């Protein structure tokens, strides 16, 4: 098994999140920033613009009139929605592949990542957090370490499953035991190399809550809950569906009832086919 530094070197083959996304995430939270400043950032990024228009015109958004420019997209979808679209498009390529070491067929990692991000976003809206973009981004990127670790999982999968079944461990606990490193920790380090904030890095690293859990941040709690809902609903791959030890506690911390969560999941499932249809577009 390579060292952490070697794995981080391998992660350089993953196309990083474009700098424009970092700038957009900073600007969109400032109500004083004019729309023109934000649209101009995207205008000079041809690939980002193309992906934005393709997604905005897809069935997932159901717009009756075609979106023909970045300005149209911002006006009709809103700045925060545009930032989410740009981010989803930027991480699609590495997530579309099959990750056989983890038992994920082609497109499955993308589906579980985007699903978690959208459900986390719904939770963030309900909770009315001020960190909606961080929650969405961390939920989308929480399993980015899987892309690098996948090749090392194949020869270790028998031992991983044995440890999980014998001791009732979560996947990342089994990864640490067998591989010496888990995908959440590695994902956080990759996010650090991409110059993301410490808040986002910690949320990626801690989203399974398998370590010290006496003080769980609101951001991490929302991502944990969204991931748990993906596991309960069968969206996540088998290996990712570990014990939801903190589910009830997190619901209480966030002030969410089962009725709230059922409503969110019902809304998600009403749009699921259109959302997954984006995979064919990108």
TrEMBL record:
PROSITE patterns per record: HDOD
Ranges for domain HDOD: 14-210
InterPro entries registered for this protein in UniProt: HDOD, RNase_Y/CdgJ
Organism domain of life: Bacteria
Pfam families from the UniProt entry: HDOD
PANTHER family referenced in this protein's UniProt entry, alphabetically: PTHR33525, RIBONUCLEASE Y
Stated name of the protein: HDOD domain-containing protein
Organism name: Desulfosarcina widdelii
């Amino acid at each position: 098994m390579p060292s952490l530094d070697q794995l981080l070197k391998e992660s350089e083959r993953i196309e990083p999140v474009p700098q424009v996304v970092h700038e957009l995430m900073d600007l969109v939270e400032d109500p004083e920033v004019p729309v023109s400043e934000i649209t101009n950032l995207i205008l000079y990024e041809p690939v980002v613009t193309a992906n934005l228009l393709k997604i905005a015109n897809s069935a997932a958004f159901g717009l009756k009139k075609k979106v023909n420019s970045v300005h149209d997209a911002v006006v009709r979808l809103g700045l925060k929605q545009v930032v989410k679209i740009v981010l989803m498009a930027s991480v699609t390529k590495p997530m579309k592949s099959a990750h056989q070491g983890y038992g994920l067929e082609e497109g499955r990692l993308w589906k579980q990542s985007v699903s978690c991000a959208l459900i986390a976003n719904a939770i963030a809206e309900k909770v009315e957090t001020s960190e909606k973009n961080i929650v969405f981004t961390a939920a989308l990127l929480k399993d980015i370490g899987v892309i690098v670790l996948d090749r090392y999982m194949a020869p270790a999968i028998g031992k991983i499953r044995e440890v999980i079944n014998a001791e009732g461990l979560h996947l990342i606990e089994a990864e640490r035991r067998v591989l010496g490193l888990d995908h959440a920790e590695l994902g956080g380090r990759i996010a650090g190399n991409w110059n993301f904030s410490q808040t986002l890095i910690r949320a990626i690293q801690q989203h399974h809550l398998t370590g010290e859990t006496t003080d769980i941040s609101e951001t991490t709690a929302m991502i944990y809950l969204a991931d748990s809902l993906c596991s309960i609903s069968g969206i996540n791959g088998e290996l990712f569906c570990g014990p939801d030890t903190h589910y009830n506690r997190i619901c209480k911390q966030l002030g969410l009832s089962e009725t709230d969560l059922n409503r969110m999941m019902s809304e998600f499932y009403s749009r699921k086919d259109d959302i997954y249809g984006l995979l064919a577009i990108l």
